[in-house]
Amino acid sequence: MGIQQRHICLLIDNFSGHKITCKLHHIQLEFFEPNLTSFVQPLDAGVIRCFKAHYHRAFCLHAIELDEAGNRDIYKINLREAMVMAQEAWDAVEPSTIQHCWNHAGIQANSLAPSSHPPHADPGAWNIIRQFADTDDMTLPQAEACLKEHLGNTYVEGDWVDALKAVMDAEGDNIKAAETVEKLASVACQRTGLTIKIPLLTKSPQLQTLEHGLTKSIEELTMRRRIIGTPPTVDEILDPQEEKNIGEVTVYEDDDAIVAEIQRRQGIRSGELVEVESDDEDEDDQPKVCVAELIPLCEKLEAACIARAGADSSLDLIHKLRAFRATLRREELQNAKQATLDQLWNTK
């Protein structure tokens, strides 16, 4: 970059891990002010909140179902159920919501052609200013009207105040006015026009609907006296204080510790090392049901659904149970082993 005389302005958030002590050449770091995350990062502009709203709504409905079924601990959920609910929550985030959040952040590539200029450096606009400076036939209101017509919605009065004022201050000295205009035009063309606009944060229609549904679920649990104390608000559920507490950045004593940590992570990634997280308590609480027992259970549930075919959800449940039973049959066949003669004849 030094040889090519390139200069880079890197915009990053003010996370402590982004702070550096070394001096960079040709790279300028500009840190965002605090609390700008939701304005400049599309995921934080509503995508993550929409995903969390889907998940917590499903969790509340899961708790209500367990309460209706007579369970005491309605908020207990195992790891697999949580993973399935999280997958369904992400799949339910609509593309329009993601597009809404990207549009809100406004960080997409400029729709203008690569050869286009920012409004304050538009050559056609500066030609109008030059014409205003070179001739006595154009008045100030006419010059402003020509600029507005040429630039359209991109016209900003503040971009042209100095240039128009310079021509007026020349008081008929066209040469002086032209020289001043050329200097201002040169400065304007060197400005990048980079600005950061903070738009008003608006929620996507999907997120508004989800938050309303989540509120109703919380009210339902409160009516069932399954929430102790003051019910949490939607913001407290979707943006808890615990998530804002960032842990300390790991500090290694020396280079050997860094190398050892990298080797450990590479070993885990390649499969040479295995990290095992204990989840015995959660697993022990779950009933152990083998495939051979699940298949007749599915058949009984199908028969019960057929007997209650008048219910709206009975037929849907029958189809799902049959599909699940077919999956269990395939799994049973795949895991089946050829019986030996000793197993057939040994009665002990």
Structure description:
With 348 residues, the protein is mainly alpha-helical. The chain has four domains: 8-34, no CATH class; 39-106 and 200-244; 119-190, no CATH class; 287-336. Helices cover 55% and strands 3% of the residues. The chain has helices at 37-40, 47-68, 79-91, 95-105, 123-134, 140-151, 157-169, 174-190, 205-223, 234-238, 255-270, 280-284, 291-307, 314-335, 341-345, and strands spanning 8-12, 27-31. A two-stranded parallel sheet has the order 1-2. Helix 5 (123-134) runs antiparallel to helix 6 (140-151). The model is unreliable at 110-115 (pLDDT under 50).
Short recap of the structure:
The chain is mostly helical and 348 residues long.
Strand order of the largest sheet: 1-2
Query: What's the number of extended β-strand segments?
Result: 2
Number of continuous helical runs: 15
Compute the gyration radius: what is it? 33 Å
State the major sheet: 2 strands, parallel
Q: Note the run of SSEs as H and E.
A: EEHHHHHHHHHHHHHHH
How are the SSEs placed, and which strands pair?
Layout: E1 8-12, E2 27-31, H1 37-40, H2 47-68, H3 79-91, H4 95-105, H5 123-134, H6 140-151, H7 157-169, H8 174-190, H9 205-223, H10 234-238, H11 255-270, H12 280-284, H13 291-307, H14 314-335, H15 341-345
Parallel strand pairs: 1-2
